[in-house]
Amino acid sequence: MASDPTRFVIIGNGAAGTYAAEQLRKDDAAAEIVMIDDEKYTLYNRVSLPRYLRGVLLEQRVTVRDMEWHVKNRIDLRLETGGAPKRFARKGRGGSSPSSGTDL
Ligand SMILES: Cc1cc2nc3c(=O)[nH]c(=O)nc-3n(C[C@H](O)[C@H](O)[C@H](O)COP(=O)(O)OP(=O)(O)OC[C@H]3O[C@@H](n4cnc5c(N)ncnc54)[C@H](O)[C@@H]3O)c2cc1C
pLDDT tens digits, residue range 10-49? Predict the structure, then answer.
């Protein structure tokens, strides 16, 4: 009998979160990976921000991982979540929904 896939929820799609998700996918092809972030952008290079804001770099040169990469690697990225959930709801197991933030 097949067991349920392991589910990971990562808060923050900065370098730490994104590379953690990447490694989890390499280690477990079947895992369910959800990553949430307050921001509206996929991973970008923070170090390049000053040059981007001065107009020296284009947005494409600052973006490290685009949405296509997340889709291809089956990482369910949810942006602009409005803060981390207060409570995590377990779908189908009678858990309650969070009072604010994302329903996980
Ligand atoms: C201009 C600039 C220059 C830098 N130069 C260097 C350098 O030369 N060398 C160096 O080593 N480092 C440098 N840094 C720092 C480097 O960018 C950070 O160390 C690195 O980004 C940290 O990555 P992180 O994933 O740990 O955190 P972050 O990049 O801060 O990512 C965390 C993410 O989590 C999200 N988040 C946090 N809390 C929540 C929540 N409750 N709900 C939803 N989302 C949440 C945030 O929106 C964010 O996107 C620089 C940073 C800047 C801004």
Answer: 999 999 999 999 999 999 999 999 999 999 999 999 999 9
Compute, in angstroms, the gap from residue 12 CA to the centroid of ligand 1. 9
**Domain range holding 21?**
7-78
Q: Indicate whether residue 42 lines ligand 1 (CB < 6 A).
A: no
Q: Is 17 in the pocket of ligand 1 (CB under 6 A)?
A: yes
Kindly state whether residue 67 falls inside one of the protein's structural domains. Answer: yes
Buried b (16+ CB within 10 A) or exposed e, 85-98: beeeeeeeeeeeeb
Count of the separate structural domains present in the chain: 1
Q: Which amino acid is at 40?
A: K
- How far, CA to CA in Å, does 51 sit from each of 2, 13, 41, 60, 65? 50, 21, 17, 13, 18
> pTM of the entire structure?
0.85
Alpha-carbon distance 64 to 95, whole Å? 36
